Amino acid sequence: MKKSGLFLFIMLLTVGASQAEKREPYSGSRIFWDMSSEVTVFDQGNYARMIELQDGRLLAVSEGSGGIQVSYSQNKGKSWSSPERIVASPSKVFYAVPDVIQLSDGTIIVGFNPRPQEPYSDDRLFGIRTMRSTDNGETWGEVTFVYDAKSTFNDGCWEPSFLELPSGEVQCYFANEGEYTASSEQCISMCRSSDKGQSWSEPVKVCFRAGSRDGMPVPVLLQNGEIAVIIEDNGWPGRGNFAATTVRTTIKDNWTSGYVDADSPKRNMIFETIPPVGEVSAAPYIRMLPWGETIASFQGNKGRSGVTDLQYFDMFVYVGDENAKNFKAGSTPFALGLDQHSIWNSVSVIEDSVVVAVGSIGNPNKNNHVNIIKGYPKRQAVAAYCNSIAVDAQKGSNENWYTKNADQLMMGHNTGNRTTADFAYDEEYLYFTTRVIDRNITNTGIDNDGVSFYIDADNVSDTEPVKGMYSFFFDTDGTIDFRRADGGRWVADENTADIKYALSLKSMYYDIEVAIPWELLGKSKAPVGQRMAMALEIVNKEEYVRERETIPDVDTDASWTWLEFRLLPGDWSGVTGKESAATAADVTVAVGDGSMSVIGSAEMSRVSVYAFDGRLMADVACNSATQEILLPAEAGGGILKVVFKNGMTVAKKLIF
Q: Going by DSSP bridges, is the β-strand pair 170-176/157-164 parallel, antiparallel, or unpaired?
């Protein structure tokens, strides 16, 4: 072969070769939305916000007919009280866009935005007002003045939102056109209160991009001591539409050194990967999880081809890091048709780690109603030990899945088919179970409904399918498509005889239960203590369309994007395991520098600590009433689980 021909041959081999590359595993949380938790809070309402009160109740506030309305839940959002109007709009003025905060001393503040109606007159101004309750919402005080802009729509002010600092200072952020009467520009302003919202300072300017409209601010205090304010910014070069953006200051500076301008390094679009031009991320909201990760919501048009009218926008929720940057793992909480919208949305964090999406749902021809839905952020899936699972597509009373209802993972917000899944294992098998609510099950053709399960059993964490990765499609016709990864491809394997597969088809749902031999995954025994990764994909066939839904930010060909997966020790039943007679009083904790002492009322057999997002952070077998536990460097709290030698267990929330 001539040298030139040899060179060409080598080049062709290089081009055709696998581009596999080991990557650091995806480490951020993904949110799993529980479709069964969706509840209507306000039959008629708009622009709602929700908080968890210090007494454990939930309080929601929204625009309502004739004013600002509130509602309460005493069971974490399962049901709500009848709406109560706390302030009525006066003649020719609309009270709009409320926000709510409970201060550290228990005071509840609701802010809102008086918006005069045409014809405009100088005695009716656009402004920011508040109301206070010092008795847990039983009664509300008089309307308090914060700020006034001008009397016309083009020179108004908008959208108040609140933050309390550790010093006790309360801040009210809002969008402000009142300073720009000769243009359509808008800045973000902030007023301060040193007396729990009874009076407010003159505004200071937080951010401003010349020629543009910074709007809809929501602040959050980060663990690093920064105040991050999420806004909508329509001035990013080349975009021409709103993009969710943060501006920030340190708590020490507290906006005293000037505002954030267009070129400041303190102004950042929130996304890890900048969305394509044309994708809108407007009306943003932000909250923080107890371990520091941040949650942002916005209304947008992603996946809604060519949509520019906000009346057809959907709600999106993304997960950011502890610096309120690098937001990713986007999901749509509500399963909506393309003729529906969820707009003027917000998010809340309750019960330490439950994310609640709050949306104004409707369509252009129907008044909005306010719904909530709960989501569970997870960085890890786990399998509980159980040697008594009968693979029959039925959950037996002695089958120990990780969660009581076998619903560790919940999906379906894209397909509209609520899906739950869970895992268990023993010495011989990895068990997988799933239920899919589907009112139109397709199982008689070539492309059927079903669920794919992927596992990276060797933690190869690669960008392409390589050895150590396996995929299983459990078809609703009762067959299994098993594939092994090799050299960048998924290779079909007919060796499925040792897989146990049970399928139960009902009129509106189907159940799957599977046992996969560890030997098939290249393991001589259950790999307890080894990091693995997994992914799920729901396949839904509707006439000529085959929909696929995966865990957020999962690429089924790239296991570095999959969810971390571990086997719990054989004598461990998990935080959501069996209840017992032990109480939190049976365990006391003393937290030191990097460690804590756990003291039980009797001898303990195991002490474990879970992060609020479900990750197992520490797990120690013991044989005494006292045990020392090392705390992970990133931990800020979690769930302590203690197993006593007498068989009793106790789970206890900790902040450390």
A: antiparallel
Give the tens place of pLDDT for each residue, 366-402.
Answer: 889 999 999 999 999 999 999 899 999 998 888 989 9
pLDDT of residue 319 exceeding 60: yes
Predicted pLDDT of residue 585: 60
> Do the Cβ atoms of 39 and 79 come closer than 8 Å?
yes
* Residue 338 DSSP SS3: coil
Q: Which CATH class is domain 584-655?
A: mainly beta
Prediction pTM value: 0.88
Return the pLDDT at 572: 53
* Angle of CA points 418, 329, 30, to nearest 5°: 60
Looking at every residue in the chain, the average pLDDT score rounds to: 91
What local confidence, expressed as pLDDT, does residue 445 receive? 85
Q: What's the rounded mean pLDDT across residues 503-529?
A: 96
User: In angstroms, how far is the first alpha carbon of the chain from the final one?
Assistant: 70
Residue 487: which of 517, 521, 463 has the closest Cα? Answer: 463
40-377 and 584-655: same fold?
Answer: no
Report d(CA 607, CA 625) in Å as an integer.
Answer: 10
* Phi, then psi, of 245 in degrees rounded to 5: -140, 150
Model confidence at 425, pLDDT cuts 50, 70, 90, reads very high
SS3 string, 110-175, reads: EEEEEEECCCCCCCCCCEEEEEEECCCCCCCCCCEEEEECCCCHHHCEEEEEEEECCCCCEEEEEE
Domain ranges of the chain: 40-377, 380-567, 584-655
The CATH code belonging to domain 40-377 is 2.120.10.10
Q: Residues near 51 by Cβ (< 8 Å), separated by ≥ 6?
A: 58, 59, 100, 101, 102, 348
DSSP string, 383-417: EEE-S----SSS--TT---SSTTS-SEEE-TTTS-
Q: Which of 7-21, 101-115, 119-133, 524-538 has the lowest mean pLDDT?
A: 7-21
Alpha-carbon span 490 to 18, nearest angstrom: 12
Contacts of 243 by beta carbon, 8 Å cutoff, 6+ apart: 232, 233, 234, 236, 269, 275, 280, 281
CATH of 380-567 among 2.60.40.1190, 3.20.20.140, 1.10.760.10, 3.40.50.150 = 2.60.40.1190
pLDDT (tens digit, 9 = 90+) per residue, 260-281? 999 999 999 999 999 999 999 9
